Amino acid sequence: MQLSYAQNLEDYHLDLVFEGQPQGTYVDVGGGHPVADNVSFWFYLKGWRGLVVEPQDALAGIYKGVRPRDHVVSCLAGRADGEAEFHVVDRLHGFSTTVREHAAGAAQFGAGYTTIAKPVRTLAALCAEAGLDRIDFLKIDVEGAEAEVIAGLDFSRWRPRVVVVEAVAPGSMADAWTAWEPALLGAGYRFVFFDRLNRFYVADEAADLARRFPLEPTPWDRVRHLWDCGKAPERPDHPDHALAAVLQAGLFASLPTLEPLLIERLVARGLAATGAGPFSAAIADRLVGAAELPRPRALVTDLAGLLTTDELRAALGRIASRYDGGLPES
Predict the structure, then answer these.
(1) Residue 62: left (phi > 0), alpha (psi -120 to 50), or beta?
(2) What is the pLDDT of residue 163?
(3) Which residues on adjacent β-strands are paired with residue 198?
(4) What's the whole-model pTM score?
(5) In this predicted model, what pLDDT tens digit does every residue of 140-193 receive, in sequence order?
(6) Which of 10, 14, 54, 156 is the most exposed place for a label (fewest CB within 10 A)?
């Protein structure tokens, strides 16, 4: 492995355990983004597939375009089917949780949260629905609700060979595994490795895998990490810089001919991604740039209205002119 996608080298350590296995199945509970800080993405790239449980709709929706082989469900996993409050943390999606005090703790990082109702399914029901038989590894990262997830899996029917569970409390990083470890040990699993964030367990019948874990967590600089690569268009050393540059040029060249609805979606997504806040007249004025306009500018207060103005059309044309053949490259 040259590039780790996981938060704490979990994919690297699991790759040591499953080295030489080109096909396999994972269950990723609390999958998060399908690529960034993701434990199972490396295995998807190897040719594996599996079940991903991710209750944040915006994140779950990305999987279809990146990981079409996976069975993705946007719900909570718990000890019984039903419904529960889910606290969605702004920006820091990894802190979103069913445990209100953990969501509130994100305030120390300047993030608030909103509370929504989400359906709860047992992991046993989800595994059956996904048609899973053999499971190579089960990963659980649910910000304090790990015991609930573990309680919902029938370990007499499904026997993940390796179980990886985040073992410290969000924010405080205090030990948190005493709430759920007895259930795993009682189900025929033994603890084999702690990477200072997660605890790894091996099923009794797969005890040979325990020898493949390192004695100590792997040094952080053993491989590159996705976050170190920066933004693809801006970094020539990013593994996808060439594609990003071509896509950026293609998008910019196409701007004046894109459907207004698509432009509206792109602008709205960009405003959200840059933290610009709700659309306003001030934002509209900033978006159309500082180029001279030989008449008073239109006053707009909503994004749909901005799309109908000469100012925005002119801005799109100016941007595109360096990519669509209007102006030669300097």
Answers:
(1) alpha
(2) 98
(3) 166
(4) 0.89
(5) 999 889 999 999 999 999 999 999 999 998 767 788 899 999 999 999 999 999
(6) 156
